[in-house]
Amino acid sequence: MIDCGALGAGNRISAVPFDLTFSLLPSTLAAFWPMRHVLSALVQNVPGVLAHVSGMLASRAYNIHSLAVGETEDPEFSRMTFVVVGDDGILEQVRKQLEKIVTVVRVDDVSSKDHVERDLMLIKVKADKGDRPEIRELSRIFRGRIVDVSPTEMMIELSGQEKKVQAFIDMMRPFGIIELCRTGRIAMVRSVNRPLTGQPDEVSNAGA
Hints:
Number of strands: 10
CATH class of the largest domain: Alpha Beta
Oligomer: single chain
CATH topology of the largest domain: Alpha-Beta Plaits
CATH architecture of the largest domain: 2-Layer Sandwich
Number of domains: 2
Distance between the termini: 27 Å
Largest sheet: 4 strands, antiparallel
Radius of gyration: 18 Å
CATH superfamily of the largest domain: ACT domain
Helix content: 25-40%
Shape: elongated
Mean pLDDT: 80
Low-confidence stretches: 1-33
Structural class: alpha+beta
C-alpha cells in the first residue's frame, strides 16, 4: 500500500512537502519479526531518487514496514525514514545497499540512539448526530484535532507514537472508518545536552 501526497514540478521531492507510506510486510507476519529498526537516510534532492531507493528495496524483498520522505532544513536534501523489520543482519544489509546509491549522502541507525518517533494520521469516520459527542471525547482524550465536519462524517488529525495512533484507529472502527491516511514513522535523535530531569510539561506530555 502506498499513500503519498502531491509531487511538485519536475518530480523534485522538495517542491511540495509530501509523505509516503510504503508497506511490504502484512501485519499478520509482523508478529514473527519483533525487531524493528529505524534508519534515517539523507539523500540529494534530485529527480528519480525516490524511485531508485524504493526500487532497490523492493527488488531485494527487504521487509520495510514503512518509508516516510520529506524535506530537510536544507532544500538541497531530503530525508527518508525507514522502519526495517528483521534482525541486525537484515539491518546491516539494508544500510550497505543504501550507501551504494550515489544520491544517498548518509545513513544513520536512529533506533540505536535516544530518539523521538512520531506518526501522523488523518482519519475520516462516519459520524451521525448521536455518535458525535463520543467521537469528540475520544479525540480529546487522544489529543487529536477535528479538522473537517460534514452532516454525516468527521475528519480527525492525530500524531504520536505508532502504538497510540493504532489504538485510536481501533477505537474508531465501531463508528465506521471511511478513509485513512498515515505518513509512516519519522524520527529524530534527541539533543545530547538536554536536561536529564525537570522537562517542561509540554515536552513530557508530547508523546501521549
